[in-house]
Amino acid sequence: MHFGVAQEKITQAIATLAPMVKEQDREMLSEVERKLKENKFNLVVLGQFKRGKTTFINALLGEKLLPSAILPLTSIVTTLEYGPQMEVEVHFLDGQVKKIEPQNIRLYVTERENPKNEKGVKYVRVLHPASILKKGIILVDTPGVGSLYENNTDVTYGFLPRVDAGVFLLTVDPPLSKEEIAFLKDVYPHVERIFFVLNKVDYVDSDDLQEVMDFALGNLKEALGSNHIPIYPLSAKMALEGRTDGDEGKVVKSGIADLEEALEDFLLKEKGSIVLRSSANKVLSLLSTSLFQVELEIKAATTPLEELEEKIERFRVIKEEISQERRDSEFLFKGGIDSLIKIVNMDMERFQTQKIPKIYARLLETFQENKHRGSLELSKLLDQAMKEILVREFDQMVIQENEKVNAEYSRIARRFADKVNDIIDRLMVLAAELFEIPLERFQVEETITEESSLWYKLEDRPKLLDL
């Protein structure tokens, strides 16, 4: 079918469906229609926190526009699309729109300046003259998942239905975690195409890089069931520095050109079909849900009152039984989490018993070696030694503990999610059978995610010796 014909049919379907759906669904349909008419699609940059997503976007733009830092920073979705000159709009949850200067973006999108989105920001829209945006891409920066800030994970998961194509950022440190695999499996059903980027390759030498690439590729193939998964190794930091400094050699060395070439090829050959497929799939998904709701209402309206009351009572009784199952499942889930916390506490106590004597011994050794020095210098040396010991010991412990906790949590969460999904399915089947409505089964996705990892903090504490 010709692009224009397909575009018109999808647009007509949107116009027909829009009056029948909820307000938030109408907003999504409007967005789909706008992207379809403008032949645009969302290329969303995804990944866990601290993978360099914002730096990567800045490298594509060629300037340090979006704020980035060592700590988990981005908390609000930022969209970037083409405009002849730079403009920045803050869109608020209450419908207001405010134009701001580019240097003030951080006041609205960062956890530090807008903790837990206390300013009520829906998203920030940036118009930018970057060449990559001229080709119909809406580049989207999302908060990283898996950080201490659970609301950031919620924001990213809430945006998944709007993803058309994605850039999934991994790093060499570590190359691929269980949390990333779990997040990727949640992302995969929503995305027509994913580009995998291995960032921070400047941290390792060429031999180690190949080993990391092989490890990541093997795990991705196993997780996604595909043998054709290209990975683009690059250093976003080096690419950004090269472009801001005008150092083309540095840009070439960064490796970003291979990804940009792949994106160019993708836009040339596949963009139109993906815009159509993505738009059609979103409309069909919403249509399926809406049809079920409408048919249920029609059936209820045409059923004799006595029969309807009888069916409602039957539904209520069975619903209460199923609700009790849900409460039982929640109780068991909480019990599983409590047991997991006990395991972690026991491991921490064991770690403390085993490691504290070693830490004291190492500090004493440092003291004996440097006791001839002045008190201020000695204090700094002991403080540095303490930090190095703690980082070494805790880093190793955190890796091992995360593996154990994530494996056990995944087992508990999977059981609970399967039970909840079964309950939802049974309720829908019950409603369909009682009201004699043919039911198209819905794909219920598991939305339980590991939203944070074990972490520790070394700063904001008294110095070892306060002399």
Walkthrough of the structure:
The chain has two domains: 39-269, Rossmann fold, CATH 3.40.50; 303-434. It contains 13 helices and nine strands. The protein has helices at residues 3-17, 23-38, 53-61, 106-109, 150-159, 178-187, 206-224, 236-245, 248-254, 256-269, 271-302, 305-370, 375-434; strands spanning 41-46, 78-82, 87-92, 97-100, 121-128, 137-141, 165-171, 193-199, 231-233. The chain has a nine-stranded mixed beta sheet. The longest helix has 66 residues, at 305-370. The protein starts with a helix and ends in a 33-residue tail after the last helix. The model is unreliable at 146-150, 441-451 and 460-467 (pLDDT under 50).
Fraction of residues in H or I helices:
55-70%
State the CATH topology of the largest domain.
Answer: Rossmann fold
Mean pLDDT: 79
Runs with pLDDT <50, length 5+? 146-150, 441-451, 460-467
**Order of neighbouring strands in the sheet with most strands:** 4-3-5-2-6-1-7-8-9
Structural class category = alpha/beta
According to CATH, what is the class of the largest domain? Alpha Beta
Domain tally? 2
Q: Give the end-to-end Cα distance, rounded to a whole number of Å.
A: 79 Å
Total DSSP helices: 13
Radius of gyration: 26 Å
Helices and strands, in order, run as HHEHEEEHEEHEHEHEHHHHHH
CATH superfamily of the largest domain: P-loop containing nucleotide triphosphate hydrolases
Query: How many E-type strands?
Result: 9
In the CATH classification, which architecture of the largest domain applies?
3-Layer(aba) Sandwich
Query: Could you say which overall geometry the principal axes of the C-alpha atoms support?
Result: globular
Major sheet, described briefly? 9 strands, mixed
Strand content: 5-15%
